[in-house]
Write a structure and sequence with these properties.
The chain has 373 residues and is α/β, with parallel strands linked by helices. The protein contains 19 helices and 12 strands.
């Protein structure tokens, strides 16, 4: 059994960050076992030196442990007061996509509900001072994606984040707000009403302790969770030094897709998103279909019965294109396998596949792999 109370106590040990804490608890399997462990046993855990192991044992044997327990009790009391909940890294309902990042938080404080369908999520982020164009585009993309059942993830900040959440809620879709403060401190304060609506249509989550203020240093840590929860990140508008650029960088490190809307080349608030496109770090997006095409293999279970897919007319294909199209499936297939199955030369198969890709019927993946769209 993994106890949040124990995790909070253990988090107070000096030099124990999220990564070491996860290793420690995973090694001992039950959090309560750690307090009875010897320094020799703790030193076998990845990331723990003999010196740090001794520090842990000494911590368990002195008055600091009582102080840590009091801290944990207060945290749980504050969480209960706002009717919050928690999810630990070892719980079955901990988001699988977030669990796969290097520095996944050992726990999340939650208001609202995290659901299994939230694995189909896209982050929409950008500047706190967007243009009218940025707001209109955010509203359009958020609503269209939410209508398809895709959860909209953002950071509850002013500007793009706020519009992303509002638009998802307005559509009746799901949205998750990842905040850079304690769950009991909503920032900015004008989003308190919005936060209550988000709780009814998704969740507000944070790794930060109750009572933590929204200090500037918290937001880069917050951003890795935004991207970690998502299949991809859409950057609407941002300057080159904006917080959205940090999230985009983290998304790339986490092997997530990054998308960006092109902006006015003379506008400062578009310099970051334009640079992402120019440098090849983000895919240029002009419509929701650009995102769906790129994420088609990951979203297919969600979209296979959607109106968008059901109403899409069958592609008009030549006889040769159809011979290639018919041997494709939802699973990636190599060009050589496709050619062999279609009983044509590889060079001819490639010509027809490129034609099909132009028609939006096929998507090419790295390594000369192709899937049906």
């Amino acid at each position: 059994m993994i106890s949040l109370f124990d995790l909070l106590v253990l988090s107070q040990i000096p030099n124990i960050g999220p990564h070491r804490l996860r290793n420690l608890v995973t090694h001992f399997e039950q959090s309560s076992n750690i307090f009875q462990a010897s320094a020799r046993e703790i030193a076998t855990v990845d990331g723990f030196s003999k010196k740090l192991a001794v520090t842990c044992v000494q911590y368990f044997r002195n008055s600091q442990l009582d102080e840590a327990k009091l801290f944990a009790e207060r945290q749980l009391s504050k969480l209960n007061k706002i009717e919050g909940d928690s999810i630990t890294y070892w719980d079955k309902n901990y988001p699988e996509s977030l669990k796969k990042i290097y520095d996944a938080p050992p726990w999340l404080f939650v208001r609202g509900k995290m659901r299994s369908e939230d694995k189909y999520a896209l982050a929409i982020i950008g500047t706190r001072s967007p243009s009218e164009y940025g707001l209109v585009m955010t509203e359009r993309f958020s609503q269209e994606l939410a209508k398809l059942g895709i959860t909209i993830v953002s950071g509850l900040a002013r500007g793009i984040d706020t519009m992303a959440h509002q638009s998802a809620v307005k559509t009746g879709g799901r949205t998750i707000a990842v905040i850079g403060s304690g769950l009991d401190i909503i920032y900015p304060p004008e989003n308190r009403n919005l936060s209550e609506r988000i709780v009814q249509h998704g969740a507000i989550i944070t790794e930060f302790e109750m009572g933590t203020k929204p200090d500037a240093g918290n937001f880069p840590r917050r951003n890795r969770i935004i991207s970690g929860l998502s299949l991809g990140v859409l950057v609407v508008e941002t300057d080159v030094n904006g917080g959205a650029m940090i999230t985009a960088s983290m998304a790339l490190d986490q092997n997530r897709e990054v998308f960006a809307l092109p902006g006015n080349i003379g506008a400062k608030k578009s310099r970051g998103s334009n640079a992402l496109i120019r440098d090849g770090r983000a895919k240029l997006v002009e419509s929701v279909d650009d995102i769906l095409l790129e994420l088609s293999s990951k979203l297919r279970p969600l979209l296979k019965d959607s109106t968008r897919s059901a109403n899409r007319p069958a592609p008009e294909l030549t006889l040769f294109e159809k011979s290639v199209y018919d041997v494709l499936s939802d699973e990636p297939r190599h060009i050589d396998v496709i050619a062999e199955s279609a009983k044509i030369l590889t060079s001819d198969a490639l010509v027809h596949l490129l034609s099909l890709e132009f028609k939006g019927s096929v998507k090419q993946l790295p390594g000369k792999l192709f899937i049906r769209v």
